[in-house]
Structures are given as C-alpha cells and as structure tokens.
Amino acid sequence: MLRVENLSVSIAGAEILRDVSLQVEPNAFVGLVGRNGAGKTTLMRAVMNLIGSDAGTIRIAGEDTTRAAPHIHARQGVGYMPEDRRLVPDWSVDDNVRLPAWAANTDDAEARVRRIYELIPEVAKVSDRRAMQLSGGQQKLVALARAFVAGTRLMILDEPFEGVAPALVQRLVEILSTLRSEGDHAVMISESDAVYSTALVDRTFVIERGRVSAV
User: Fold this and answer.
1) In the chain, % of residues over pLDDT 90
2) Domain ABC transporter: where (predicted)?
C-alpha cells in the first residue's frame, strides 16, 4: 500500500532523512518508533507531500506520488493525523471531520461520517461544537475521526498517544484495535517508545538520526 524507497529530505539545509526505505503492506499495521527529533514527523509529512524530498520515491497503491499535490491523497483513500492535530479552530467538529470528504468530493461522504460517529461516539456527541472549545484529548479524537474519513485504504498517524491521559490512550487503542480487526485498512503509527503500539502492529521500523531499520 505504501512503499518508500531511498528517501532523503533536508530542511533549511540540514539533512533530516537519509536514504530511508520502508513499506506498509495492504491491511497491515506498522509501527514507526524513534525518539523526539529522530525524523518520524518529517517522514510522515514527506509521505503526505507536505514537505518536499531531495531524493527517492514514494508510492501509494503502486502510484508514484513523490511530487503529487498534497490534496490528492484524500482522493487516494489516504488519511493523515498530524501530531499537533491541525484542526480548523473556528469550524465545528462536524465540519472538521468532513473536510477530507469535501476535498475529495466523495459520493459516500455521509456513509463515511456515520461510520466514524458509530466507531467514535465521543466525537458525535460534540459534533456541533467548535474545535477550539474542545480539550486536547477531544481534539485528538476529532483528528483521528477526520483521518478515518479520508483513510479508506491507508492511514498515517503521527504520535496519536502523545500528550493524552491514560484513559484516552486506552480508548485510542480500542478504536485502532477495532479497525485492525476489520482487516481492510493499512495503518502506520509513530510513537516515541512503542509502549502502546506494540500490541497493534504487525511489524516495527525504528528511526534514528534520520535512518530507518526494520526490527
């Protein structure tokens, strides 16, 4: 579903990713583990074409997306949950959740949203509130719901467990476990120390100083 080959990325003249290669098979859950500053977020942002690359290729479902416009991913069935959530603060929760469906002009938007609200009823309960009115934990759930709406085939989740209370971490694990049991999504989850993702993933990649190795 996702294949990264020999990817190198520099930011402001500093090399952040060095000849990175990894792949996520269809319907597989993959962990990306590394300390803060190791390059996890840079790799995920590069996969989503939010930053450019110096060398290498990125393929999603066999299609070369190395130079694609970022918005194309919603049409490819790829969802992204940034570490910092990136919700539109003045928009309602419902509008934030629906944003990828609008971007992709999907015919089944209503069905997708209904499915997400069934899976994450906590988001449905606050759907009419503005994103800025939510707690950090609630915003995490909304960002995950938004990624679900887009990610019918592949989801890229950057530090979903970071900075949230233990009870919410457990809830996030439950949601992802449900998704895993359904067996129709590929997911890449980044985490600093693999405390929570180990039970979810089929394999783990470790990133250190911009280089990736398989465990």
Assistant:
1) 78
2) 2-215
